[in-house]
Amino acid sequence: MRGLFYNQTLPLHINYQFFQMLMSITFKRINHFHICIAPERLEEAKDFYINIIGLEMIPRPDHVFASPGYWFNIGDVQLHLGVERSLPFTDRHTAIEVTDILAAQKHLEANGIVIYPQPKVRGWERFAFADPFGNRMELLQIINE
Known about the structure:
The chain has helices at residues 12-23, 42-52, 101-110; strands at residues 32-37, 56-58, 69-74, 77-83, 94-97, 115-117, 124-130, 136-142. The chain is α/β, with parallel strands linked by helices. Strands 1-4-3-2 form a four-stranded mixed sheet, with helices on one face. A four-stranded mixed sheet has the order 5-8-7-6, covered by helices on one side. The longest helix is centred in the N-terminal third of the chain and has 12 residues, at 12-23. It is globular and about 50 Å long. It starts with 11 loop residues before the first helix and ends with a strand.
């Protein structure tokens, strides 16, 4: 196996360890996730995430961005709303752990949100829904089986 220098040959284990050291990433936590809203529905989205989902809006450094948006606290991460033309509903999603999946489901259904059951994953109770702007979200609760 060739090393960093063209004519240098290194044993496989030395080369692998070297590259592993260079390419290692230590993750700390998710800081935020960003979802997109059609520009004409941004204010409606702000209202939905405050009044239906119950998030706390936090300051956004608007002077940094070329387009409008809003930021919210969601547990110990943030949700960032930005604008982009609408796309069809897809499998792309964010999954958020909740403390009471049944209460979350009842709350969303009471507010007219359609619930999409998901395939069973051992140790999880979960469902998906689309926010009124086409963003697929999954809520899950870790359970002891």
